[in-house]
Amino acid sequence: MSKTASLKQLAQLTDGELVGDENLIITGVRPIEQAETGDITFLAQPKYRRFLETSKASAIIVSPAIKGIKKNHIVVANPLVALAQLLEYFHSAPHAPFGVHPMAVIGKDPRLGKDISIYPGVVLGNQVELGEGVIIYPGACIGNGVTIGAGSVIQQNVSICPGVTIGKRVTLHSGCVIGSPGFGYVWDGEKHRPIPQVGSVVIEDDVEVGANTTIDRGTMGNTHIGRGVKIDNLVQIAHNVSIGEHSIVVAQCGIAGSTQIGRGVMLGGQTAIVGHIKIGDRAKIAAKTGIIKSVPAGAVMAGFAGIPHAEWRKAEVITRRLPKLQARIRELEHRISAMEKGASPEK
User: Fold this and answer.
1) Whether residues 154 and 49 fall in one domain
2) Does residue 317 lie in a domain region?
3) Cβ neighbours of residue 341 closer than 8 Å, sequence gap 6 or more
């Protein structure tokens, strides 16, 4: 059954100021261009205000900067936060736990919390511990001695290798691999000898790991993902990396071994980071940046190798002007040569 709510209820949910009919019933959330009667939409920036003229939405979420709205609306400090709250309200469905499916394979001495759901095709190793309300979808493989905290969701075909610790309310999306051996070898004079990877992975509470992302176990000690970290799809995190709380790692990043990433760091897509360096708290690394040395807290880096963002922007402007600058230099060289020969330079 579809959810509905009055505009008053939605204002309370988003902690916003309601302007208009508080009894208006809202049946869903849609983008401003696609909204129909009964929908609520949002407008975060004044430059998109032109869409209001044709939008059929019954109500709108706006920031305090948007003035003179004639439609029913709710004023909130951050429309994107409010949008997340509304989408969660209208589209989240309560999960009905059903226990362990008979087609799941459960190892010895499991410790299973109440209200869990283990779907068909799941494989649990020995001494696995699952907290209350854990959901494990088909095809997931959980190794011996793994601990998964309450409220966590393990999606289809996830592999969690032995000894890994997963916190509470963690989501691991389809196909990700947690705790595979780190890429460690030493040349012994004749061949690459593997270095046993005997550490593990610790993922704290409220972390989300995207599809087909890999997080390697430590060589010795643990690879550590801090509370609230959000990791996109197709990311490689090597052995003994540490990522601080509430950092963001966007798709196709590669982080080499033993790198320490601070709190609140943002790594843009396809960022490459060498090993054994530090990225300071709140640093921002632009997409496709190569980081080859430590980055101070709060820095904004771009380019390869990464340089301060302001310098990179200036360099990019100059790069685009190089053909004209080259032509100008040749003209000046011609004029100087002519002057040195005593001739009259031609423009």
Assistant:
1) no
2) no
3) none
